[in-house]
Amino acid sequence: MTTGASRAAESGAAESRATGSGATESGAAESRATGSGATESGAAESRGDELRTAEFRAATAEETRTLGARLSALLGPGDLVVLSGPLGAGKTTLVQGLAEGLKVRGPITSPTFVIARVHPSLSGGPALVHVDAYRLGGFVEVDDLDLDASLEESVTVVEWGEGLVEGLSEDRLEVHIERGAEDEERLVRLSGVGPRWSAVSLA
Ligand SMILES: Nc1ncnc2c1ncn2[C@@H]1O[C@H](COP(=O)(O)OP(=O)(O)OP(=O)(O)O)[C@@H](O)[C@H]1O
Ligand SMILES: [Mg+2]
């Protein structure tokens, strides 16, 4: 796919970041796993916590798209989805599935110099705002991107948004994608954060 190829040229920089983010994330994931039982559950019942995380295995890119399409059924206006995972993990591929499920105008790509795109609905539903924060070094105010869309009325998905966009909303769906043991295998972990997701079954 051209999306992967467009980033291939940058592999020098990408490699080091992929390594760095992997190390950081695993630390964060561990503490979060612990924290969700201890800290967060102050408010949420443990049963609620279980519903807020789910893991899937996608054997092919097509399966990742299908997962994205299924996931889109849970999304509505105002929702924020934060995608993380190393370069080439399949974040954009999953967004392609989301776009398909949401019935918005495509195509979903990873343009090198465009930070965000608005994909209007073809069916009267919410638009999809696709942000790629790869090149943004600091905190993102998506409103500053001056998009021709209202985030309250759109589904916003942000690649490489971890650590940057959490302040945008107290509710967000985190999607983390990692490579599995097989060449095309990907492990996709969903975690719902905030009251919006507290009673939603992600499984
Ligand atoms: N199971 C899979 N799920 C997703 N993509 C897969 C899978 N197996 C193979 N691929 C391939 O891996 C590549 C994933 O590229 P994609 O652009 O979606 O990754 P990305 O995480 O968005 O990368 P970037 O960090 O550059 O934004 C595609 O070429 C896709 O065809
Ligand atoms: Mg991408």
UniProtKB/TrEMBL annotation:
Belongs to the TsaE family. Required for the formation of a threonylcarbamoyl group on adenosine at position 37 (t(6)A37) in tRNAs that read codons beginning with adenine. Is involved in the transfer of the threonylcarbamoyl moiety of threonylcarbamoyl-AMP (TC-AMP) to the N6 group of A37, together with TsaD and TsaB. TsaE seems to play an indirect role in the t(6)A biosynthesis pathway, possibly in regulating the core enzymatic function of TsaD. Residues 1-51 are annotated as: Disordered. Residues 1-45 have a biased composition (Low complexity). It comes from Microbispora cellulosiformans. It is found in: Cytoplasm. This is tRNA threonylcarbamoyladenosine biosynthesis protein TsaE. It comes from the Bacteria. One of its GO terms (molecular function) is ATP binding. One of its GO terms (cellular component) is cytoplasm. One of its GO terms (biological process) is tRNA threonylcarbamoyladenosine modification. InterPro entries: P-loop_NTPase, T6A_TsaE. Its main location: cytoplasm. Coiled coil: none annotated. Keywords: ATP-binding, Cytoplasm, Magnesium, Metal-binding, Nucleotide-binding, Transferase, tRNA processing. The gene is tsaE.
